Amino acid sequence: MGDSGDAVTARWLQSAGLQHLAASSAAGGSGGDYRGGMAGLGGAGAGSMLPSLLMQGYGPQSIEEKQRLYMLLRSLNFNGESAPGSMSEPYTPTAQSFGGGNSVESFYSPELRGDLGAGLLDLHAMDDTELLSEDVASEPFEPSPFMPKEIDDEDEDLTSGSQQVPVDNYGLVTSEKESTARENNVAKIKVVVRKRPLNRKELSRKEEDIITVHDSSFLTVYEPKLKVDLTAYVEKHEFCFDAVLDEHVSNDEVYRETVEPIIPIIFQRTKATCFAYGQTGSGKTYTMQPLPLRAAQDMVCLLHQPVYRNQNFKLWLSYFEIYGGKLFDLLSDRRQLLMREDGKKQVCIVGLQEFEVSDVQVVKEYIERGNAARSTGSTGANEESSRSHAILQLAVKKHIVVKDTRRLRDRDANEAKNTKAVGKISFIDLAGSERGADTTDNDRQTRIEGAEINKSLLALKECIRALDNDQIHIPFRGSKLTEVLRDSFVGNSRTVMISCISPNAGSCEHTLNTLRYADRYFIMSK
Ligand SMILES: Nc1ncnc2c1ncn2[C@@H]1O[C@H](COP(=O)(O)OP(=O)(O)OP(=O)(O)O)[C@@H](O)[C@H]1O
């Protein structure tokens, strides 16, 4: 106990690798003109400049520092149990914390749902080291419970022979009861959170996993914090969503939870949008890339059902990218595309190549081709991929049989006119947004890109909010992204948002931003 508090603090910080804080703390001790609170710090007592330094922004800056501080805090003030209720005091309750009871009922109460005030996503580039790799696209498919059972030839004959399936003038099934029930079972907006595992780099740095998924719908984030008097504490943040998927969940299960229930209603004139967002490296691309392939498999399967086959339904695929407010066709040598509105105020992307696809292998080839175009177009592959929104669309169209022989001669020219859109699903791998502080390191172009990304994420948020409030005016002109998605926002639409989060302590701030962003949608959708 012979050491001054500042010397003790300095030694702790030094051992935790926070040298710049240690030096400042030691200097403060010798000056002796500042005496902060003595509480916390393992009972050693530490008058110090550290609180003020932390307040002045001298706190841990890098992930490593944050992680070391987190480890330090754990060894000082709490025992490192991550389970709820095991936190040592002091513990600061937040608007979203459970309180003592931890009852699920109290969790759902509006008082504990947190406020709606946070601003734009504040995500930034983090560690995107490859995790123990997995070929995401090659996971085997399992049969879907949402899909109609395979009908054998006998059944098929019975169905087509009986001619009892009523159809509307689109040729769609009008078994009202059945389709209404299906649509009602699929929420207008569904919010799903996916936590990725710690990656190799995070594991090698012995980073802590600060997120606990309690069951399939709620999670807790344990945020390491320091009071100004250096008392270490953990702030607990509880969140509830339609679904929370932990690090053990496979891409196939993600598909089942998110997209699979929507597929049948795409054939019932529904337009759906599924997008992933989160900070760079949180797993957006990993999550989004396999989804269209799985969706296409189910859609092809539905197309083969007699009711749709007889109505001449076909599946079409297109894949493009929005980069810096401009559109590029990923299946046509990154040709720049123009967006126009037709007389019926329908959005048309002039020149966008659409391909009719009738088997999954072909879909896979197109997706791979598009993905390759996305990365080869970049100077630093990851940089650009995280700075563009990639949009893959699968559209169901009804082909109208042309009986007029004169028109038949000019069949190709009339192809576009001979199809009628039925439904569509868009998969959007959103760009990760920028953290304000990072932009000082970036060049002008990078900052412009960041601003564009933030603008489009904000516009997307506004559109979904308006959509959810059933507003007449949907502000889709807020960005290229929302303009392009305009027809997916109006009429009979469904939206699935997948929030991807990183579990390490160093990403805590960004993870909380992502979760708060998702939380607002979740509240809106209730
Ligand atoms: N759930 C997961 N399980 C295993 N590995 C994952 C998971 N999520 C992400 N990864 C891995 O983490 C790394 C980063 O993921 P990914 O590229 O999808 O991030 P991102 O959010 O799309 O980043 P960016 O915004 O830069 O495009 C990849 O190596 C990916 O394989």
- Structural class, from helix and strand content? alpha/beta
Quaternary organisation: single chain
Mean pLDDT: 68
Compute the separation of the termini in Å.
57 Å
Specify the helix fraction band. 25-40%
Tally of separate helices: 21
Task: Name the hetero compounds present.
Answer: adenosine-5'-triphosphate
Q: Return residue spans where pLDDT drops below 50 for at least 5 consecutive residues.
A: 1-60, 72-174, 376-385, 434-440
Tell me about this structure.
- This protein has 21 helices and 14 strands.
- It has 526 residues and is α/β, with parallel strands linked by helices.
- The protein has a domain at 5-59.
- A hairpin with a 4-residue loop joins strand 2 (211-213) and strand 3.
- Helix 1 (5-15) runs antiparallel to helix 2 (19-31).
- The chain is globular.
- The N and C termini lie far apart (57 Å).
- The chain binds adenosine-5'-triphosphate.
- Adenosine-5'-triphosphate binds at residues 128, 130-131, 134, 196-197, 199, 278, 280-286, 382, 385-386, 432, 500.
- Adenosine-5'-triphosphate binds next to helix 11 and helix 15.
Task: Give a quick summary of the entry.
This protein is an alpha/beta fold and 526 residues long. The protein has helices at residues 5-15, 19-31, 50-58, 63-77, 104-108, 153-162, 176-184, 200-204, 251-258, 263-266, 284-288, 290-303, 306-309, 360-376, 381-385, 405-409, 411-414, 444-468, 480-484, 486-489, 508-525; strands spanning 189-195, 211-213, 218-226, 232-240, 243-245, 271-277, 313-323, 326-329, 335-341, 347-350, 355-357, 388-399, 419-429, 493-501. Mean pLDDT is 68; it is low at 1-60, 72-174, 376-385 and 434-440.
